[in-house]
Design goal:
This protein is an alpha+beta fold and 90 residues long. It is built from 4 helices and 4 strands. A hairpin with a 2-residue loop joins strand 3 and strand 4. The N and C termini lie far apart (34 Å).
Amino acid sequence: MKLYGFTNSPFVRRVRVVAQEVGVQVERIEGGQAVLQGVSPIRKVPVATIDGKTLFESRVIIDWLTTTRGWGSLVPSRERAAGVEGVRTA
């Protein structure tokens, strides 16, 4: 996956963490507006190109990763969540 964004962006970091957890290799591409103009009509980071698709915004990218690759180790076990108020385990 190519991930366009800046190292200090919390949204880019979030995508990188999820990608690592689900086992997707990330090629980071940093650049200014000129680089983003070629990939994104909205010119905001993060932007990812993966599986022949260009995805915008961290939530969309993370949804795509978890839908196509699974959750990896990101989901707590049912035993850990049992007994925590507001968590349904059934």
